Structures
1.
Amino acid sequence: DVTTRWGSGKPKGPGIWYLLDLGRIETVHRVVLLPGIFVTDAPVGLRVEASRDKENWRTVWELPEIMPGLYTWRGQPRFDHSGIVELAFPGAQARYLRFTHLGESPPFDWSIGEIFVFAPGEPGAESPKEDILAAVRGKLIRGRPAEAEEMLSCIIEADPEAVEAHRMLALVRSAGR
């Protein structure tokens, strides 16, 4: 639910961190963060560290300045105003991921609406929901956001890990504010 979020509770600044427990050791190679409906809450810069035991940490991704809204779809770079942050890195064995904010950007706080963590999968595997997402884009282009939101909610109900559906739902809901 992109309308709920974890928030830092203070203006974006270096050293604010969020810890994610995956529940068991997994091979992680990609993470997608959505700030929710407040795209101004996307991080300025970010470091991601992985740990198997919550004591020994290894930095797997770090960038002091990021461009929220830049992501890949069907292997192609895309940009929008969703605030999405997509991080790809060589596979890392981890149970815990620590996200540390880098940089400053008052007065807004840093928030995370959704986190998607990916393990390596079948190369080139396409999801059948791509056709439905194309239809949702058509609804948005034709100015029918309520119908688009209903379709996106159905996709998310069937597949809670549908990142593109969550991203588009955040866009639809933020446009209505």
Note: The mean pLDDT is 85.
2.
Amino acid sequence: MKRSTFDGLHRRWPLLLLPLAAGCASTAAPSAATAPVPQPAIATPAAAPAPPAAPAFSLKDHYTKHEYRIPMRDGVHLFTQVFTPTDTSHPYPFLLNRTPYSVGPYGEDASSDPAPGTSLYSFAQDGFIIVRQDVRGRYMSEGEFVNMTPHKPHKSGPSDIDESTDTYDTIDWLLKNVSNNNGRAGQWGISYPGFYAAAGMIDAHPALQAVSPQAPIGDWFFDDFYHHGAFFLPHYFNFFSGFGKPRPGGGPTTQGTPGFRHPSPDGYQFFLDLGPLKNIETRYYKGEIAFWHDVVAHPSYDRFWQERRILTNLKHVAPAVMTVGGWFDAEDLYGALNTYRAVEDQNPGIVNTLVMGPWAHGAWSRAPGESLGNIHFGGAPSEFFQQNIELPFFKHYLKGDAGSAPPEAYVFETGDNRWRTFDHWPPAGTTARDLYLQGSGALSFDLPPTADTLFDEFTSDPPPPRPQNPAVNPPHNPP
């Protein structure tokens, strides 16, 4: 057994008291800005016959697919798929998604239809020029892939590239080479693609009018891997065992790399048996995962991580922004809330909307989203988001739709299970408080008064994954 002492338990945890659930304290006065948003009826009388199923929407029936290798300012070509509507009676805006996860299937004759109930399905039905791109160094795009490409605020020539310049060059080429466009572009992405959406709106091309970073990585140290200091080993190991491998053959390829196949379904036991971190390299990675060496070499929040913090560079943002997140997102809740805040603080006067719903990571892109485990939200929040928030946002700014501009915040209130809108975020009149960690696992709004309460200690015994209570559990004696 190991004895561990956690110092600094007096550190502050900010708590914002908001009217988001029954029982939460708030000083916000009721107003039209905080009124519930009307939602469509979801119940059908038991005796009513089920309506006939609508035929599935097919991209092949309504779109033509083209593939291009778009040149960037430094000469690297990025592989890009463009789906243009076959109805050419009017021009369409571009809707761009840049991803490190592959735009496959590859080939102009190969296409896969978006699943009904997804955001992409609703975009395709409404009519956009849909653009999907492998980012630099991934799959069929040329160049070197860099994780969370550091932004370069000052550029002196065509060799100074980052995700902002790659987005700019892509949009500029599309405008000049894809016919029947209306001169406007939008961008969106979830999780890692959410980072690319956020990066693309910095010093953006004038045609980029609307951007929606969704569950965006804002700061990889806090978002995913160190979670305020605690290394999230299972998350890192499982993700990078496949994602972190170099491309087969070293250059553009349609082939991905397989992830790790655990020898047992008991993940807890796998990591318990792993031993020290060095065993990851000697037993499993064996020199294939370059980013592993970076992570273990930088266990503190040093310059390596600070350069990958896109939040501090979210300046010179001109497009309308709608950041989306889920209250129950275990990966990128930090990124969503702080991307909204960084844009708000560093770009006064622009349209900047926050959407927070009752979702796990990315669940808003899959309808209906009526539950999380055995918790039900009284409707279909994902479907409501797609049809009443997300699609109207892009139609308003890219198609000139007459609908109104979005509010400052769309927030789903759990407990009462309703959408609410706000003119300010946090809502006017709410009170921010600090919570302090105390000894013996307690929390308090008061700073610990004496030095002997500024730390706590406990016995770390991994086999029982919870503190032992002799009155309930017998002591564990490992061999």
Note: Residues 18 and 426 are 8 Å apart (CA to CA).
3.
Amino acid sequence: MSLNHQTHPRHTLFSSMTSRVGLNIGIAIGLSAASLSTASAQLKIAKISADRKVDFGKEIYPFLRKNCLACHNTTKAKAKLNMETPELMIKGGDTGASIEPGKGDASLLFTSSAHTEEPTMPPDKNKSKAKNLTPEQLALLKLWIDQGAIGSKVIVEAPKTWTPLTGIQPIYASALSIDGRFAAVGRGHEIQLYDLRLGRLIGTISDPELKELNLSPRGAAHKDFVSTLAFAPNGDLASGGFRIAKLWTQTPSKKESEVALPAESKTIAASADGKWIASGGIDGSITIVNANDAKAKPVTVKDHTAVVTALAFTSDNASLISASADKTLRLRTLAAPTKSKKIDTGIAQNALVYLKAGNQLASAGADNQIRLYPLTAFDPPPA
């Protein structure tokens, strides 16, 4: 609703009438015609008991928020009128107070809403899709003003259900640590942390309390968009989302266990569930560690004849794929890691990536070519 007018027709005319001793017949006829025109456009007003107490937060604010606040709020106040609280409406805008407590019929908010005088609100064909108030709403509005327009700022209840954000999410917030080592970015529900020295993503920061909402497969930091981020001098990270700010503190790392490797490690990989860690050595050995069971002994296998250059777990966390300079790729299940299937590529392999979609893997060879293999390529051809 936009309450923007330069004069108050009824009050101005009434003041003019009382300031004169005599009125000519033309003014009287003009007043009569104006009254008939206004009355014909007036909206219907329901009849309600004057004894009932009107609750601003529950009965008035909801329809004002729906039909008025789009144009009259802190950020956008047409005619300098903010209608977010009764105090602000009483204060008014360019044309003075929009509410006169105790005087519903004399309050601009009511008369413009009821279409008893110009300008009528909301305007026709408004961009906010605001609609005329219903007879019941008009009756409540008048009674509330008659009762003194009592109320305070309303805190709208937060949504009870949240929808996961799907697809590629743009970055709406970013922050750089004081030492320039880490960069944090907000993508949808997530906060992703990058190590700029290593030049890669090192993890997603998530709130365990949001896990049951299933907002993100990697873990959500906020229910809504992560809209702002800032690093503290000590390395802690602050984030802001829907009505809430969170402080993420760094936890000092500590060594829980130590695993002896048969040879120098060339590559390392971890399963998506965090249960398995695998290390590939320069001698062709692979050591597999159960990270969830400190008592479980590491398993070391050696079926590659040259350095293991890359490792990758399958998305079901059940198998491990390895690439080697011995010109082979090998697939082994974690249930029986000593047995493996192989693909002879004919070229030394430098890198390996498992592609969840399509159950494929991509390998980079020493001949500068990338090759795609289905997992079925590890199975021997039929006789």
Note: The two ends are 80 Å apart (CA to CA).
4.
Amino acid sequence: MPDFYTYADQPAAGVPAGQLKYGNPFAPGNPLGNAPIVWPNFTPLYPFQQAPGYAPPESPFISIDRNAGRLPRQLQWSLGLQHELIRGLVIEGAYVGNRGAWWTAPVLCTSCYNSLTLQQVAAAGINTSSASSLALLNTPITSTLVQQQFPNLQIVTLPSGYKVVPSVYSSFPATQTLGQTLRAQPQWDGVPPFLGPPLGTTWYDSFQGKVTKRFSHGLTANYAFTWQKGLINGTGADTSYLTPADPRINNVYDYGINKQLNTLTRPLV
């Protein structure tokens, strides 16, 4: 099954990466042999689920959110005043702002982190107020302490080594930690979020001033000044693969607290 990188890549020099005559490469009955993806059941595109709840790594090992194709929205406005002080000398002042929403925010893809929340840990029987109990999360499941508290993770000794019975999934290594068994996808740590959910929001406010002086013989001098502030939440570009200054995330499960300065906006220009 070709992934979208394979489909978009040139098979050879001078050969097109794709042709419109093939239509949607994931449509039912497509000539490429891809399994059909039909809305709304195409989450996540990568990795593909081969069985309910089982999504082995694909190539490339990335994820695409089901709503990643939603177009962003940008609202812009301005209010300006212009005044001629003396003949040939004009000053201008304007407030310019905009608000953006529905931008792709890979760093806000909670499922891609594949991490444990306090609620998940507590539901598994771990006392989140006890340091010794939390330490079990980093303890191999072969440990006596883990086996005593989680007898469902039975360990048997085979000639080739340990095996978990019943296994978390087929061939799950018994040398893994308890925390790994509690992940939503215990077969890996996390998935690189190539195209994340459209949760990115932006704020921009500025004062823009300009002075224009017209001299004789068609000579004109201009001076412009901008005092601006940009804020972002979860987005700095369409994807973190192309973002020169990736947003920092304090808590992916608490969306509001991740609002921060846009490092691509200079305060004074």
Note: Confidence is low (pLDDT under 50) at residues 1-7.
